[in-house]
Design a protein that fits this description.
It is built from two helices and no strands. The chain is mostly helical.
Length: 74
């Protein structure tokens, strides 16, 4: 397997993980902001922090999983 193919897989894994983590983080952040009654414009900041944090973590793990999986041949 070529190195470019492995890099493409890791990049795609990170992108998919980031998109999925961002979507889940936005839903969860909205729920938490409403639940804890975060005031005013701080809701937007709270939801944004939750979205970016969740996207980064899930993207990292999916990218790492793609990197580990890239070295295996079946």
């Amino acid at each position: 397997m070529a190195r470019d193919s492995c890099l493409a897989r890791v990049t795609a894994g990170f992108a998919v993980g980031g998109a999925l983590g961002g979507a889940v983080g936005a839903v969860y952040g909205t729920y938490e902001a409403i639940r804890f009654k975060v005031p005013g414009l701080l809701k937007v900041r709270y939801i944004g922090q939750t979205t970016l944090g969740s996207a980064a973590v899930f993207g990292l793990f999916l990218g790492a999983g793609s990197l580990i999986h890239c070295g295996k041949s079946y």
